[in-house]
Specification:
It contains 2 helices and 11 strands; from the N terminus they run E-E-E-E-E-E-E-E-E-H-H-E-E. The chain has 152 residues and is of the alpha+beta class. It has a domain of 105 residues: T-fold (Roll), CATH 3.10.520. It has a 5-stranded antiparallel beta sheet with strand order 1-6-9-10-11, with helices on one face. The protein has a two-stranded antiparallel ribbon with strand order 2-5. It has a two-stranded antiparallel ribbon with strand order 3-4. It is globular.
């Protein structure tokens, strides 16, 4: 396994995308889809996962700050350092679905430092070369989806 990402090769459907800040409440739209991780404490008895991803013969790769992060001035930063700035990202999570777990891990790591506009631009470009879907949870907790509809 490569450092910093969870890799799973799945031949059946059903992966649970965990909330990278499971102590915080997830805001959902009328269809039950997560739109944002709030600053409020999760108070329910149920799991506080994001969603179930349905995939077959695909791989799900993720980079996040759930278990590996550092605190600077009481702010959480991910463990992946930006080669441009030399600083870690404040994004909370990236999830990528590809045929290859190897490429998915590389892509999720690379996308972790992107702002939403960069995430969409790169995903659009990659989708011309391969089958790819994914999401980015930015530093504010907002969830940005790319081509994920078929996996819900």
């Amino acid at each position: 396994m490569l450092e910093g990402a969870a890799l799973l090769a799945i031949d059946e459907w059903g992966i649970i995308a965990e909330n990278p800040e499971d102590e915080k409440e997830v805001l959902r739209n009328v269809n039950g889809m997560p739109t944002r991780i709030t600053k409020y404490k999760h108070s329910g008895d149920k799991d506080n996962d994001l969603f179930e991803i349905k995939i077959k013969n695909m791989s799900y790769s993720t980079s996040n700050q759930k278990n590996t992060y550092l605190m600077i001035n009481n702010e959480k930063y991910g463990h992946i350092i930006s080669p441009k700035t030399g600083f870690p990202s404040q994004n909370k999570q990236v999830g990528v679905i590809t045929k290859s777990a190897f490429f998915g891990d590389i892509i999720s790591t690379g996308l972790y430092n992107q702002i939403p506009e960069g995430f969409y631009k790169i995903m659009e470009r990659l989708s011309c070369e391969m089958e790819i879907s994914g999401f980015l949870i930015d530093k504010f907790g907002k969830i940005h989806y790319f081509n994920m509809e078929k996996h819900f």
